[in-house]
Amino acid sequence: MKSVRIYKHGGPDVLIWEETAAPDPGRDLVIVDVKNSSLNHLDIWVRNGIPGIPLPFTPGSDAAGIISAVGENVDQNRVGERVLIQPLIYCGNCASCKRGWENMCSRGGIMGESHPGNHAQKIAVQQSQAVPVPDSLPFPQAAAFALVAQTSYQMLVNRAQLETDDWVMVWGAGSGVGSMAIQIAKAKQARVIAISGSDQKLEKAKNLGADICINYQNDDVIRMVKKETDGKGVDIVFEHVGEATWDISMRSLAKGGRVVTCGATSGARASVNLTHLFFKQQSILGSTMGSLSAFRGSMELLFTGKIVPIVDKIFPMEQIADAHIYLESASQYGKVVLSNE
């Protein structure tokens, strides 16, 4: 079989598609024949170099496929099952796991970051990570779902405590997490302001349910936010851009508002006016990945048709370098998917 391997950090050219040993179905494990996987910005950070990642390494957090073999202690009837991969790794026994904070597990991590990933023809995962999906959900959409949905649900519902009629400002409306955040917020009956630098992406955000669309290249974001919210500002800012947008995010926030962030793609340096923060009783919330409750909550929305994974473009797995280049160009709306078929 073949896998994507990284032997050194760097640009897309360090991604190698090569023959590797097939995984064995150990105890409590299942072998999944990967039909599709997808890219996240995490894959770019891993490729560029996150400290502590052992090389060589196989990236990739998201995947979907068919169980082809099972190990000891796994029901043989699972062979042939269509599944998507829940990429969170957790022990289930530490204090955080017992409180339902599996994404803060002391021994945990994410496939494709702290543990070998899914950009391969076959993978071995814990049986609990292989989650059955119906025939009505195509493999590309299934592979485009877990990480962005789990992350977005954790940010909006579990961390920011999203409520009905909240105003939610979503940066990067064309990204995987952004397109999912719009849908989750609307499914929870919130009001959404989508922000992008592309009118074409904003049109797609509107089709997903965004109430207000702002092109930051042409519009005064703060002025428009204040206008649309009757001068109040937004209740939640969905942040993952970082340094380039932080000041606008804080200035757009209402009294009692929450900025929740899961990334800093434009840079990690940010400043905060502490007087405004405590006087307006605002909150800044960090969020990484998502707990099992976030995964289950997002799956319920998926299976009831309230959210849909957005696939922008599909590349053959062996063209992963081209897929990385495309993702880094910020041309996509939704997810970039890889195919083994």
UniProtKB/TrEMBL annotation:
Keywords: NADP. GO terms for molecular function: oxidoreductase activity. InterPro entries: ADH-like_C, ADH-like_N, ER, GroES-like_sf, NAD(P)-bd_dom_sf, Zinc-ADH_QOR/CCCR. Pfam families: ADH_N (PF08240), ADH_zinc_N (PF00107). Residues 10-338 form the Enoyl reductase (ER) domain. PANTHER family: QUINONE OXIDOREDUCTASE (PTHR44154:SF1). This is Enoyl reductase (ER) domain-containing protein.
